[in-house]
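Late entry, written up from scratch paper. The run itself happened at the end of the previous shift, but nothing got recorded in the book at the time, so transcribing now.
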Amino acid sequence: MKTLTGKSNSLTSEQEKCTEADRTLTQLFPKRRIERILFILPPNGDESIFAYDIAKRGRYENYPPYGFGTLATFLRNDGIEIRVTNLSNTVLDVARKSENEKDFDFLSIIENELKQALDDFDPDFIGVTCMFSQTHVSAKNVCNLIKQIAPDVPLALGGVHPTNSYEGKDTREMLLKDFKVDFLFLFEGELSFRDFVQVVNKQLPTSELAQVIFTGRSNHIHFTQLKKPNSEDLNVIPAFDLMDLENINKNGKIGKFYYLLEPEAQFATVMSNRGCRGRCTFCSVRSFNGKGVRGRSVQIIIDEILLLRDTYNVSHIMWLDDDLFYNQKHTIKLFNEMVRQNVGVTWDASNGVMAASCTEELMYAAAESGCNAINIGMESGNPKILKDIKKPGTVKQFLKAAEVLRKIESIFSHVFIMIGFPGETYQMMMDTIEVALEMKLDWYNVNTLMPLPNTSIFEKMKEEKLIKKVGFESMRFSGGSYGKVKTNEKRRDLLAKDFKNTFASFDLDTIPNPLDLDKIWAYMNFHMNFVRLFNENRSMKLRQQIKNLENICTLVSPDNAIAQYFYGYLFFRLNNYIEPKITKRLEDTLEKHPYWQKHFSDFNLSPEHLLTANFPGMQ
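Output as recorded:
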């Protein structure tokens, strides 16, 4: 029997454990029958980090509950009735429709939605998922509320964050203390969760329980058998009828490249394979999905996309894959079949692809099949950092991939950059800037490292006392709509910081103070993204970039004066004139937020350039 490593069961024999588990199941499910299961997706952030204005303008990510959809397909095949309550979509929907913030009560919205779902559906079992560490507090609050409303309905928690937190030695007790649930399901649940239901329904023996922890006792019962779905298991189409795709698209964004398409475009997510070949020390994919990559069949993927297109009017998909280009032969076949079968949707790889896989053959096939944007996972341009974080990529491979992508102008190419690795000096960060500038791709997403539980970099930083206190409340990415980087009166855009002399002020061989990483972020963002726009002359790239800048000025950071300036510049390049309202908005922003004025002086920027259409950086 294959088991999870490093864990001991509280009961000494399998027979004793099964007997105790069977007794507990009978207590929790007196009829020993599960007929209706309610799945609940919590908001991605709790009330303390939720911003009404961001929700109102539709900036928050709003992904379909794809995992619940896959589970539902398995369970429906066994005759189980499933309902999904997407609280993340609910709060965004109410925010979008509300007249003002006074009419919006985050906690009441969640409580009312939960009460209605529980009353209407009367479930026998409730499952809550928690994908991200930043969702910990939100998921905890939702679970506590469920226990108050329906204390007699058994409650389970699963997902990436609970799995990694339970497997991590520094976070397990914190997880168990915070979540008052009856069961924890670890790792991928298609098989183990389905079998759990069958055990409760006495269709399988208790010994078939896997990847589940009975948490309602002082001595937890842990079934360590691992049931990992194989490629054939994954060849199912999720229950999209449970996902409310139309409203999800209205209330938020799917992926990172929504701005490249028309606002009315309908987005959805699709997975072609699961897992990742990489072993990056900062990533939890391998910890959750295990070694290796399991691919779905080409035809089942195409059938899924055609269903989305024909039934739900979907015109664009975001691949959920963590290693989309893992099997080049399989991937090229998929793209070629999408063309041959006239699938007719566009797609992006927001989650990132490996540079080494971006060959000319694959990327031309990708473009022909509808690819309009990808992310390259680079992280660093310094060889030592790449080696330390076990990144499956080299500077040579990054430059080679960029050479290929520059030839295919229809693909808008982003690059993931990360700063703040242990031992990373100013010079190492300068190496990243130099490689990025040499790559000459379209945009660079810079993030500060957030070490996640049950990753090797987390353990290393704990040992080196770089993490002084472990707490879920502080686990948030620097960027993104729920990240720490926001623009409002209390928390300015990081570009508003004084960053002109960021690298000139320090010995490049020293390691930055964590407090200085915000300035480094601003410096890199300005020089690797905005300034380079003066040198862009390709018409297709100018059209892509103005959509990118319009998105920043409208949704991401409405008071970002630098983005407004460069939006005006791009507008002039494309139209040979500048609308007065563009200049007026920049002037108003500079007057309202004087801190931008210093940056304009530092870098020789001025609203006068928009008035006169005379930009000093133009070549």
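Confidence is low (pLDDT under 50) at residues 1-10, 485-491.
(Scratch paper discarded after transcription.)
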